[in-house]
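Page 37, continued from 36.
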């Protein structure tokens, strides 16, 4: 089995061996990618989780109200329907 400490040491040695200019370039590229992603995502028509949860609750209340109104309509129709002979 490979010793995890040896892997960490090797990774640190490799990271330390990378020239600072390459590290800076990589950090700069990462920052630019984040900026581009954030900009592109902001252009999409997304809603926040909070807005989604609020709309979910509104929809549930609307469905409950609709079911109540349908039941009232059915009861009203039964009251106003004349019995057939």
């Amino acid at each position: 089995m490979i010793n995890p400490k040896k892997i960490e040491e090797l990774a640190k040695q490799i990271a330390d061996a990378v020239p600072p200019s390459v590290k800076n370039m990589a950090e700069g590229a990462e920052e630019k990618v984040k900026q581009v992603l954030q900009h592109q995502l902001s252009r999409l028509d997304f809603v926040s989780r909070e807005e989604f949860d609020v709309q979910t609750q509104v929809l549930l209340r609307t469905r409950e109200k609709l079911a109540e109104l349908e039941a009232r309509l059915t009861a009203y129709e039964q009251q106003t329907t004349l019995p057939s002979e």
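The first helix runs from residue 4 to 17. Flag for discussion at group meeting. The radius of gyration is 32 Å.
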